[in-house]
Specification:
Chain lengths: 251, 559
Amino acid sequence: MSRLLYLLAFWCLGATATLTAGVGEAAYERGDYVGALQAWRAQAEQEGVTADLLAALGNAEWKLGHKGRAMVCWERALLLSPRHPVATAGIKHAQGAGGADRPTQTWSENYAAFLGADGWLILGALGFWGTLLAVLVPKLRRQPPGDWAQRILITSATVFALSIPGLYGAYTLASRAVVRRPEVVVKLTPTALGETLNGTAEGDVLRTGRRFNGHTYVTSADGKGGWVKSTELEPIWGGALPANLDQKQAP
Amino acid sequence: MRAVFLCLLACLAVTLVRAENHVTWEITPPVCGPGQPFRLQVRIESDDVLGPANQVGKEIKPPRGMALRFSGQVFRANATEATLNFSGVAPEDEGNYVLPAFNARFPSQMVQVPAITLIVSSKTGYRKEGRARAELVLPDRTFYVGEKIAGSVVMRGSEQETVTGTFGLECEAEGFNFQTEGASFTQPLQDGHGLTKTFELTPIRAGQSEFSLSGIMLVNTGERISSLNTSGRDRPFNFRRRLTVEHVPETGRPADWGGSIGKLEVTPPDVSNRFPEVGEPIKLKLTLVGEGNLERIIAPDIPGSDTWDIAPTSEKRQRRGEDRRTFIYTLVPRLPGELKTPAVRFSTFNPDTKKFEEVEFISVSVKVSGNAPAKVELVTIDPAAQAGTPAAKTVTGLLAPTVAAGAKGVTKIEPLAASKPFWLSNGVLLTALLLTTAGVSILGYLAAHPEILIRRRARRDLRLARRAAQDALRRQDYAGYAHAMAQGLRAGAAPLLQAEPLALTQSDILRALPTANAPLVAAVFLAAAGEKYGAKDTRQTLSEDAQLQAMLNTLEAQL
């Protein structure tokens, strides 16, 4: 009897979860983007973010005109799932219709996007350990390396060598940020009164370098470098939902 | 025949036409206090010329307790309108009093005025007697930073003391903006004996603060000073109240909230042209009405879409106190067909319910004519490309998102490279592996070269024996000295001869040290084991200590 009750409870929980999950999509379909956003945010706060959820949030944010937040969501969705179709379409739409700039990916970044940063790191670690163990274990056993040890050594060393460009690409991909403010000035020096070089707009993706004096050195999609206030950028790595920079103080 | 019939019909129709009369009335004030004077105005509009009414006062029969008299009429020659004015005093008891229908007799016709109801209530604040007094009307609740609080000072008079004016309204309140602009004119109360002065308060910071409002009202006491002047006096008033102000709560605050606080409603959106052509701009007016800080609201941002290009907002600024705010957007249709303007949601914080509410400007259907523009991706075409090269295909538009139910996500997207346990465990394993490898290699090397350890052990034993010999010499224990020296020589020579130390004799020592003093070595061994074999006195070896030490040094150097 108690088993039956448990089954019934699980069935109810499952039905509720499906209902909750469908709320955002239903709201999005009928054009209620604020409702969709609220539903998905609540889901993200409860269950954590997934690539699907971030891509959906990006769409809703874009529909509400929040370009910066949308780009952050899509970029983070691609971190979790490098070929996510909704996030990819969103970023292409932002670049085409929305005029957002995004640095062209280098060959190593394209290579890195094939597996994702974690995938390359795991592969690199496996290659490294495989190589090391294939070299050391025969020494520890005081025996000459056998056929299997040599095969493992060659395979592991190849995997490790192949993972190096992926790791480098993942590192450069991680060094990017999204502009979150509508009009951001790129300055020659990291100072409050630094000379203005050019400007960048909300939703643009920039490569980031070192930080100094509350500023971050950035390189834009067209290769121009300069300093931008760190508070006007949001790094792609290191968060889940976009930071609430747009939260207005009560007037 | 037919024409004659039509003319006859027209004449009959003219005789059947009756004049249409329209009668309206108004009582000022609409609700009277017991014994309060009131004014009744009856307006008659007719299709015929009316002229003056006759014997109106005789026709009207007021109910018991009510005094009413015909005070005059307004009419013009050859006009179709007339106004009848009555003055009266409401009964002393509360209730609804019906003035029966009566006839107004005009020269051309008689018009029936329908029954009129006068409401008498003691809740109107009308006072027959008493001193004029001022009351502060301000909501008794927690206020929020940025909201517009509508307040007023009601100056109530009586038959004896009428409030005729006010001046010098001053507010002393830290943390508030005080405004009377837009509501500067003073409105009379319905009973005609008092005034209402409205003002607006806007809290600018959170906390508790003292609100103080003072002013002066002009009171007419009714005493006649001369035929042209009556006596009056200034009467000051002052109010103090402690107000609590908080920030609008952050919990439940929608992302699109633009600072709006109040009870707002939307009006139906107004579109300047419902039948535009493709590319023809139209205006979309969205108007918010209600009580709230309308002038502080940030205009909602409407993003463009596949069907609409939306230009930046312009807006129609209203004067303060108009209780409405209009946002105007320019929409340009991109495609033909039945399009709908974007629905705009708007969040506002209701200070009474302390909750965020959402209002929505609904979509408006617009029929767009014309042809869709050619699909040319101007942005993506490379001007340097060769003729005939197809433009790069770009994915435009967003895909419909699907969110899997129950999928467990992450709370923070961080690369594995940022994980300390990952690097720590790898580092520990690597260190352990390297240490093990190094240890095994060293042990293997030592196993392959056992003489290293043997010689090392021999050096140690030799040094111990030398130290023991010196101790024995210091104690003048000659037997012990010889024994320690013999041990030292054996320990030093054993690795060189690849033999166990205890198995060595004096001749073996001489093989290891060919240059050694053979009698001395023999003497040492004899002294060391002399007791077993009945040897001579061992004192003669004492003088050779330096030679023996040199032998030990030679052996140690060879190890």
